[in-house]
C-alpha cells in the first residue's frame, strides 16, 4: 500500500472491554498499544470512536428523549471517549489531537479538514469526535466520511469478533465467516456490520473496509500486514487485502 493513511473505527463498547466500567483501563491501553505500533511503522492514523459505552443516541427514545436530542447526547459521549483515548496515547509517547464536529474549544479543537490534514502530516494521531455533527447519522457513517475527506486508503473497523459473519457468531457459533465481500454483497445480504450509508459512501470513494477483532493484542498491525483472520469489503475484482 503506497498510501499509508488509514482510518480506524472503534465502537464505544470496545473501550468498556468485558467490565461494567465505562472505560476499562486494560482494554484502552491495549487498543492504544496497537495504534502506537502502527504509528511506529509510519502509518498515518485517524480514529473515529463511538459512544455506546456511555450513551447510545438510538436508545434515548425508549425513555422518552427526543431522537435529535438523544443523538446529540451520543455525540457528546464520543467526545468523552476521544479525550480518554488521547490521554492514553500521549502517555504512550505519541502526540494525538481530538477534533470535534461540535465546537467545544475549551476541551478540544473544532473539526476542519485542513486542520486534520495538518496534524496527520505532522505525525499526530487524529481522533475525530462527535460523529459527523448531525443527528440521524451513526459514527460508522462519520468514519466513512472522514476517511473520504482525508484521503485514506483503508477504513478499518475494530470489533469484538474476527470479521463479518452471516449471523451473529456469539449466538450462532457455526455462522459462516466471510473473508471477502463486495460492497454490493453487504448491502444485498443486509449484513449489519456497518450502516448502509457508510458502505455506500466507502463504495463511492473506493475505500476498502477491513473488519477485524481489536480485542486481540497486536491484531491491528497483523491485519495491516495481511495476517490472521479478517474480512475485506471492496468493489470487486482482485483481492485488495494482503500487505495492505
Major beta-sheet overview: 9 strands, mixed
**Proportion of β residues?**
15-25%
How many strand units? 11
List the helices and strands in order: EHHEHEEHEHEEEEHHEHE
Q: For the residues shown, what is the average pLDDT?
A: 91
Say which CATH homologous superfamily is assigned: Acetylglutamate kinase-like
Number of helices: 8
Helix content class: 25-40%
Whole-number count of domains: 1
> Roughly how many Å is the radius of gyration?
17 Å
Oligomer: single chain
First-last Cα distance: 5 Å
Describe the structure.
The chain has a single domain, classed as Acetylglutamate kinase-like (Carbamate kinase, 3-Layer(aba) Sandwich), CATH 3.40.1160.10. A 9-stranded mixed beta sheet has the order 4-3-5-2-1-6-10-11-9, with helices on both faces. A two-stranded antiparallel ribbon has the order 7-8. The protein is built from 8 helices and 11 strands. The termini are close together. It has 244 residues and is of the alpha/beta class. The radius of gyration is 17 Å and the shape is globular. Helix 5 packs parallel to helix 7. The C terminus is likely disordered.
Amino acid at each position: 500500500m503506497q498510501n499509508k493513511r488509514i482510518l480506524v473505527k472503534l465502537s464505544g463498547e470496545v473501550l468498556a472491554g468485558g467490565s461494567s466500567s465505562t472505560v476499562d483501563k486494560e482494554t484502552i491501553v491495549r487498543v492504544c498499544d496497537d495504534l502506537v505500533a502502527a504509528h511506529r511503522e509510519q502509518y498515518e492514523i485517524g480514529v473515529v470512536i463511538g459512544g455506546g459505552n456511555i450513551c447510545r443516541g438510538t436508545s434515548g427514545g425508549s425513555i422518552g428523549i427526543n431522537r435529535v436530542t438523544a443523538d446529540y447526547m451520543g455525540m457528546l459521549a464520543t467526545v468523552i471517549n476521544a479525550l480518554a483515548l488521547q490521554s492514553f496515547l500521549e502517555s504512550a509517547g505519541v502526540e494525538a489531537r481530538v477534533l470535534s464536529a461540535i465546537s467545544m474549544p475549551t476541551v478540544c479543537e473544532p473539526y476542519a479538514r485542513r486542520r486534520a490534514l495538518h496534524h496527520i502530516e505532522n505525525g499526530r494521531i487524529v481522533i475525530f469526535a462527535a460523529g459527523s455533527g448531525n443527528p440521524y447519522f451513526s459514527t460508522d457513517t462519520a468514519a466513512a466520511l472522514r476517511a473520504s475527506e482525508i484521503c485514506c486508503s483503508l477504513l478499518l473497523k475494530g470489533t469484538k469478533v474476527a470479521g463479518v459473519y452471516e449471523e451473529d457468531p456469539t449466538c450462532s457459533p457455526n455462522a459462516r465467516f466471510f473473508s471477502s465481500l463486495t460492497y454490493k454483497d453487504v448491502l444485498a445480504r443486509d449484513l449489519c456490520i456497518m450502516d448502509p450509508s457508510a458502505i455506500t459512501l466507502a463504495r463511492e470513494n473506493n475505500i476498502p473496509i477491513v473488519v477485524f477483532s481489536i480485542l486481540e493484542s497486536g491484531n491491528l498491525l497483523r491485519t495491516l500486514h495481511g495476517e490472521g483472520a479478517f474480512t475485506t469489503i471492496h468493489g470487486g475484482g482482485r483481492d485488495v487485502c494482503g500487505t495492505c
